[in-house]
């Protein structure tokens, strides 16, 4: 049995809950849910069912979702300041990660209320570590904008990142999103689709985006996480490329200083490197301005 006697009062406990497999609920998470004075939850019915399965006598359940989080945060903080323990849970996984809760946590921090994380299941991290893609640098985008310029900007950003990207998608939109990703990232960009994580029919398919788009173009069931590998690093400009730009800039009448700045912008090379190469270029009229 987990000892919770040392858990602080006047604290918001951010408690992760299972994303499918009930065995993933931590003993500490169960213990904390059993001692708090109230639970802020995304859906009172779902949380009530979870507590029943865990054998926990439900405390006061307070609906805190995308529509009510702002208006209910103040009252919750007042209770926390008064010394109560309150847990924050989402329908599944870790609260505040593409789920409600981030605004409440931020408000607690601003009010000087202690926030305690009780770690557990996370769909994003589960998909990442099972994808076989780089894990040293990654970002979680959650659900992309549904349409328009905002969606295109998000797709373009994923395409250009030199790190792994993680997005959530609904089953009925998975095929279309994979088609879009293949178009902007390239058909051969490595990715993975994780479906029904931790559940009986868990599936993780690893393949280039074009193959995944074909595989999941029809009927898809269950919760879906898409992990997209990083873009290949941009090729570094060669010395000859940089010198060619410098010569062109010199012929255009630029001073050495201006030509170096323009070459840095054009090639992405470090200024010190470009300046060193510029010193070897014969400048019209003997321009020897420094950078």
Helix proportion range: 25-40%
As a whole number of angstroms, the C-alpha radius of gyration is 26 Å
State the CATH superfamily name of the largest domain: Tetrapyrrole methylase, N-terminal domain
Named at the architecture level, the CATH assignment of the largest domain is 3-Layer(aba) Sandwich
Task: Give the helices and strands as they follow along the chain.
Answer: EHEHEHEHEHEHEHEEHEHHH
Number of helices: 11
Structural domain tally? 3
The CATH class designation of the largest domain is: Alpha Beta
Which structural class should the secondary elements be placed in? Answer: alpha/beta
Strand content: 15-25%
First and last CA, distance: 68 Å
Main sheet: strands, sense, barrel: 5 strands, parallel
CATH-defined fold name of the largest domain: Cobalt-precorrin-4 Transmethylase, domain 1
What do the pLDDT scores average to?
Answer: 93
Tertiary shape: elongated
Counted beta strands? 10
Taking pLDDT < 50 over at least 5 consecutive residues as the criterion, the unreliable ranges are none
Give the strand order, joined by hyphens, for the main sheet: 3-2-4-1-5
């Amino acid at each position: 049995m987990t000892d919770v006697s040392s858990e602080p009062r006047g604290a918001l406990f951010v408690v992760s809950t299972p994303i499918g497999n009930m065995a993933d609920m931590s003993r500490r998470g169960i213990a904390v849910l059993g001692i708090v004075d109230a639970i802020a939850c995304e859906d009172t019915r779902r949380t009530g069912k979870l507590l029943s399965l865990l054998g926990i006598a439900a405390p006061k359940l307070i609906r805190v979702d995308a529509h009510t989080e702002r208006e209910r945060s103040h009252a919750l903080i007042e209770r926390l300041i008064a010394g109560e323990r309150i847990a924050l849970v989402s329908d599944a996984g870790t609260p505040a990660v593409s789920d409600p809760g981030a605004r409440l946590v931020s408000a607690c921090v601003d009010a000087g209320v202690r926030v305690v994380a009780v770690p557990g299941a996370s769909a994003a991290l589960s998909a990442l570590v099972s994808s076989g893609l780089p894990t040293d640098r990654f970002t979680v985008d959650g659900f992309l904008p549904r349409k328009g310029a905002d969606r295109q900007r998000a797709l373009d950003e994923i395409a250009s990142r030199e790190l792994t990207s993680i997005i959530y998608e609904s089953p009925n939109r998975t095929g279309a999103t994979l088609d879009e990703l293949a178009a902007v990232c390239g058909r051969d960009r490595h990715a993975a689709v994780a479906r029904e994580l931790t559940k009986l029919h868990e599936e993780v398919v690893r393949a280039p985006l074009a193959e995944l788009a074909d595989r999941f173009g029809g009927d898809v069931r269950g919760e879906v996480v898409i992990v997209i590998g990083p873009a290949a690093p941009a090729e570094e400009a060669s010395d000859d490329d940089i010198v060619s730009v410098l010569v062109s800039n010199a012929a255009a009448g630029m001073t050495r200083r201006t030509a170096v700045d323009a070459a840095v912008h054009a090639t992405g090379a470090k200024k010190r490197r470009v300046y060193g190469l510029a010193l070897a270029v014969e400048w019209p009229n003997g321009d020897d301005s420094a950078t």
